[in-house]
Amino acid sequence: MQFEIHALDERQQVVALALEAASEDAARQEAAGRGLAVFAVKHLEARKLYRALLKRPAAFPTTLFSIELMALLEAGLNLVEALTTLSEKSSNPESGNVVSGLLNAIRRGETFSQAVARHPRHFSPLYVATIKASERTGNVKEALGRYVAYQQEFDRVRKKIVAATIYPAILMSVGLLVVGFLMFYVVPRFARVYEDMAGTLPFFSRVLLSFGTFVGQHAWVVGLTFAASLSFAVWLFTRSDFRSYINSKLWAIPGLGERMKTYQLARLYRTTGMLLKAGIPAVRALEMARGLLAAHLRPALESARRMIEQGKSMSAALGAAGLATPVAARMMVVGERSGDMGGMLAQIARFHDDEVARHVEWFTRAFEPLVMAALGIAVGLIVVLMYMPIFELAGSIN
Question: Is 100 exposed, middle or buried (0-12, 13-18, 19+ CB in 10 A)?
């Protein structure tokens, strides 16, 4: 085993060295035999294991890879030359290994779609299907452009939603921290001050200070209970059945469930539209987009897929299955008449994404003042209940 030794030499200077030894004591003895005064020993293998456990593998930037590959192909390079260039310029070992794997697979005679299919962790089935469909015409650049546009539209809405919810989340977190500080730190100390006047305090002040007294006397119990509750909550949210239960309850809330369904349908329309543009049949496209929908919507999509197999149009099938909003149903009919169903589905998705983003922005604008008012009332009430005995005492003196 390897150990890192920190010690003082004969000149009283700090030195560091690595030693091979059977145990920590053996490493200390060997260092002492060299005339060193050891003051710290670290197990290098343990440190390496700890770092390996903490270090998460870097995600492969699929969208950036597609943009760069498309730019190189448009510049006139062939696929092998473009991949070689990307492999040489990659500074991330994980990304470099992926690109090298693609390059080696193509040199073995595999198609580009087969090469990317070998890396399912980095390239989704949608990506593979888009590339595979483009190989019939030999226009990989067009397929990459479709995927990049699809991903950028998808990220655009997600970023809008995340940006709209950041400030309310920070506001609630800070407010809860302030309330927690008052309840678990300040109130217990006020409770000690008012111990002798407990019988003369107002009712609500007595309740608050009784809580403070309990917290002060059982701080370890309260801390352990809070930690256990937090751990239990985290464990619950790691379970798929609990997340499905919470999701079903959220879908049942009037207004919110409708917006969530609209967001899900927009993902379905965008993905299906991209696959239709790539030349994939409608039945296969719906089957591939199935995983993007919430679990309770998938049976409806399967029903729509069967109706299309039986000869119904996509607009009629999705409408009968409850997977088409009134706007989407009308626009799909227009798309079927014009013969550009893929482009029409992309427009429908963009319309519904903007609609969802508007509702999220409206909700956060209305929610922020409500949260601020609630937190202000909570903090103010706690402070007033703590200082009310002092106000009453001052009044009696006057």
Answer: middle
Do 190 and 337 belong together in one domain?
Answer: yes
Whether the predicted pLDDT of 30 surpasses 70: yes
How many structural domains are present in the chain?
Answer: 3
231 and 310 inside one domain = yes
Query: Helices in 200-340 by DSSP H: which ranges?
Result: 203-217, 219-237, 240-251, 256-277, 282-288, 298-309, 314-320, 326-338
pTM here is: 0.61
* Residue whose tokens read 């678990």: 184
Residue 86's CB is within 10 A of a number of other CB atoms, namely: 20
Distance, in Å, from the CA atom of 125 to the CA atom of 110, rounded to the nearest integer, reads 17
Distance CA 98, CA 59 (A): 11
- Which residue do the tokens 């299906």 mark? 272
**Which residues constitute the domain of residue 176?**
150-398
Residues 110-151: pLDDT tens digits?
888 888 888 888 888 778 877 887 777 677 888 888 888 877
Nearest alpha carbon to residue 277 among 390, 129, 93: 129
SS3 content of the chain, % helix, strand, coil (to 5): 75, 5, 20
